[in-house]
Amino acid sequence: MPKVQSSQVVLDSAYRCFCRNGFRRTTISDIVEEAQLSRPTVYKYAGTKDEAFAKVVRVRLEQAATAAGEAADAARSPEAKVLGVLTVKLEVAIRLWDDSPAHAYELLAAASAHTPDLVAAYTDHLARLLASALDEAAPDAARQAADVLLTFTRGLEDDLRDTEAARLGLRTGVRMITSGALSRPVILPA
After folding, report:
1. What is the pLDDT of residues 162-176, one digit of tens each?
2. Among 33, 148, 162, 163, fewest CB within 10 Å belongs to which?
């Protein structure tokens, strides 16, 4: 099997194992069995369980970051750009919940604990996309609004039992938050 194909098989197998067993209960033996490759081949492409997990997280976040950038580029209005970026973020969480309803919380926590730099880089990328979308209309509030929008979306990701309600909540929240960020700022007394 060619290198790229073997590497992809190993990472796809690792993802399925993490989704099925959770982070704590997945072993390299599980990944070897799922990939139907030799143990040395799995170690070559995945490394340890922690390294395999980090590689899976990296690939998933890189794909999501690319999709978020494309969504922002395709949209015409600041609100549509924001909604496009945050829809990508929410859909990543929905996919994880669909793939691993029993272990989604654990996997999200493991990603934050075991790959904090990857998660932070992804979040920063999204914040820059959001701030850029809002910057022309609201340069003073763009980064703050981006942070609020990301926090709001993380809140929606906490309970994805009803994905349509989460999607509707995202659209409603984006409309409300961006309309506030894009309106003339109100200066409150100190």
Report:
1. 999 999 999 999 999
2. 162
